[in-house]
Specification:
With 218 residues, this protein is an alpha/beta fold. The protein has a single domain, classed as Metal-dependent hydrolases (TIM Barrel, Alpha-Beta Barrel). The protein is 37% helix and 20% strand. It has an eight-stranded parallel β-sheet. Strand 6, helix 4 and strand 7 form a beta-alpha-beta unit. Helix 1 runs parallel beside helix 2 and helix 6 packs across helix 7. The relative contact order is 0.15. The structure holds zinc ion (ZN).
Length: 218
């Protein structure tokens, strides 16, 4: 089987390339959803006041039934944004829905490591820490059931000893790559990962495709 390039998190329109992109959708109205490419759905901590809880639950549950919906996310906690206690409640609640539906979660986090630990401690499904910029120790502290992955985006193109060390130390079977909001080509992220891991690019592509098939099989 030929391995495909996986872009595990993007907000941009799918572009044609030899791979799979998981596009983030901000809880669209399921009745108006016509797209068939892979998506993740969830309410981002920046937009927590956008829907009532009831509308959000109804939409999330029906969107998650779609065959192209692969994960709940991005959801999470951001200490730079207001209403942190509301963020906490809404995040815990979306994690509970993901647990109920047995779906992976894609996590946005900023300065909220301890709270993430508390909420994800009993979550057995795959966890993807998107736009990861932390250390190997922080990953270990969130890897409760050996179910936690880090997804590397444009941060890897900036000089950071902490992140570089983390990428070198983490097993490749816990790694993803993403473009998020940026215009960077996903190929550029793979090149950098291969360089840091001292592995040929096709090996990293293979491994990340395997990771995708393991946690989002259909
Ligand atoms: Zn994002």
């Amino acid at each position: 089987m030929n391995s495909l390039l996986i872009n595990i998190h993007t907000h941009r329109k799918a572009r044609l390339f030899n791979g799979i992109e998981l596009r983030n959708a901000y809880v669209p109205d399921p009745s108006k959803m016509t797209i068939r490419y892979p998506i993740s759905v969830g309410l981002h901590p920046w937009f927590i006041t956008q829907f009532s809880k009831q509308v959000l639950r109804e939409r999330l549950i029906s969107l998650c039934q779609l065959p192209n919906c692969k994960a709940i996310g991005e959801i999470g906690l951001d200490n730079n944004y207001p209403n942190f206690s509301v963020q906490l409640a809404l995040f815990a609640w979306q994690v509970a829905i993901a647990k109920e539906l047995r779906m992976p979660v894609i996590i946005h986090q900023f300065k909220s490591h301890e709270n993430l630990q508390k909420i994800l401690r009993n979550f057995p499904e795959p966890i993807i820490l998107h736009g990861y910029n932390g250390s190997i120790e922080q990953w270990k502290q969130l890897n409760f059931f050996n179910n936690t992955y880090i997804s590397i985006g444009y941060n890897v193109l900036k000089p950071s000893k902490k992140l570089n060390n983390c990428i070198q130390a983490i097993p490749a079977n816990r790694l993803f790559a993403e473009t998020d909001q940026s215009n960077i080509k996903i190929e550029t992220i793979y090149e950098q990962l291969a360089l840091l891991k001292s592995e040929p690019i096709p090996l990293i592509v293979n491994q990340i495709h395997e990771n995708y098939n393991r946690i989002m099989p259909h």
